[in-house]
Every structure is written in structure tokens, then in C-alpha cells.
Design brief:
alpha/beta, Rossmann fold, 2 domains, 7-stranded mixed β-sheet, two-stranded antiparallel ribbon, 11 strands, globular, binds S-adenosylmethionine
Length: 271
Amino acid sequence: MLCNEAVKRIDAVSIISLVSVMRNEEVLADQHRELDRASAARIKKLLEERAQGKPLAYITNKKEFFSEEFYVDERVLIPRPETELLVEEGLKILEEHKEARNIVDMGTGSGAIGTIIAKKTLKEVLCIDISVEALRVAQYNARRLNVSDKTRFLCSDLFDGLRETTTFDLVIANLPYVAVDEWDGLMEDVKRFEPKTALIGGKEGTEIYGRFIERLPNRLAAGGHVLCEVGGPGQAESIGAGLRAKGFTVVSRRDLSGIERVLVGTWTHSS
Ligand SMILES: C[S@@+](CC[C@H](N)C(=O)[O-])C[C@H]1O[C@@H](n2cnc3c(N)ncnc32)[C@H](O)[C@@H]1O
């Protein structure tokens, strides 16, 4: 098998499968198959890109999230497995509050959260992002998952593009939360290839969430919920405190690594 020492075997198999339009199992079962020159050259080029650190998801333009295949490229953050917890919590709230109708996926990126929520609940989800390029990817994913009729897309800085009176029953946010000083410590693949605007949340990392929380009380219907993904050191405490200071009841959920990853806020006041 054409391979490159610097590339993990499983990644190499995915790249060969992509180019030769075979399933991974077929590639593994037929390792002595002859490849035409064009395919071999293309595989070599992609293996080199992978060896230089380009994430596999950007090479194959595929990432599995919540058992669905999403299209991704460098316009969007690659959905992370820990974000599935955010979706699980959202689905739980929507199961308990069947009356909930107005749902927003804030910082939608590839649309991973909003499209899964729409697909699983058949409720309409408004997907907001400040990046028009990310929204194009999210819209494409909504078509792929057959939820175009259940998703709407808005290019906006947080809630700014909405009418002042628009409120929501559930706001799910995965906004950037990396601090400027943490940037150097991120993995090279992330720094070189993923969109910085999807990761950096300001000097402290919590500035975008700070602006978001400031606007939240006017945006939630009575009894509404907000879910925030967090992860930097001390962020569950600081962002949780910000939500409590605005009058939210807050609990946190830990991911599989034991990190407080999702804040669940309940708004019991009227907006
Ligand atoms: C951490 S990524 C999350 C992407 C996706 N929701 C996911 O979970 O994989 C953050 C997203 O928030 C968007 N974003 C950053 N600042 C924003 C703002 N002020 N208003 C709306 N979206 C913003 C970025 O463009 C990016 O797509």
C-alpha cells in the first residue's frame, strides 16, 4: 500500500478510499490493487498534505458528528466530539419542553448543532454566524441532511441582525472561547488550518460570551433555556457567574474527560 510514515495508517486508508472511491474495508481487504497513475499521484499529494499537518477532515471534506456525515472545509471549525454533549442537552430540553418552538444555534459554523436538532426534533432552527462563508457550508449541510425546510440562516454579530422583539425558547451557543494567550499552545494543525475567528474569544477568551450574555435576558422567553459550550481554564465558573449575575439558574455538565463543558441556564423571568 502506498503510504507515508508520517501519516497514520487509518488516515492513509481514508485518503486512498476517497481517491479510489472505495470503502475503507475494501481498501484494507485489497491492499495489492493496482492504481492508475492519476489516482496514485493524487493519493501521494493528499498524503503529503496530511503529513504536513492538514487535518484529515479538511482533506476528505468529511467529519462525522452525531452519527451524520458533515461536509467541512477551511471555512468552518471541524465539529468536535465533545460538542455532542451540547446537542444531547439540547435534545433533552426539547424532549421535556415539547412546546418550545423558537430555537437558535448561535455560532453555527458547519451547522452541525442546528441541523442535528432540526433533524431529530423536526422543529425549525435559526442558525446564526458572523461568517457568511461558514453559513454557506451550514446551508449545504442542511441540504445534505434534508432539513433545508427546517433551518434558516442569518449572518449576524450575535443577535444584532434580529428584530428587537424576537425571543427564543432555546439558545444553543458554541461561540469562540480560546484566550489570545492560549493560541500559541494549541496544536499546530489547529493553528495552521482552522479559522482563527471560530476559536479566539478575545484576550481572556470570554469576551464574545460576555457580549452574548449581556444581550441574553432580552432574547429569552420566560422559562427559556440557554446552553453554552465552554472549556478553557476556569470558564465554567466565570461564564456561569456571568449568567447567574443576569438572573439565570445555572448547572454544568461534564464531558467524557471530566471537563465542565456545557452550561445549562434557565431563564425564569419574563423578558
Ligand atoms: C467554536 S465555532 C463553533 C462552530 C459549530 N457550532 C460547532 O460546534 O462545531 C464558533 C463559531 O462562532 C462564530 N462566531 C464568532 N463570533 C461570532 C459572533 N460575534 N456572532 C455570531 N457568530 C460568531 C464563528 O464564525 C464560528 O463559526
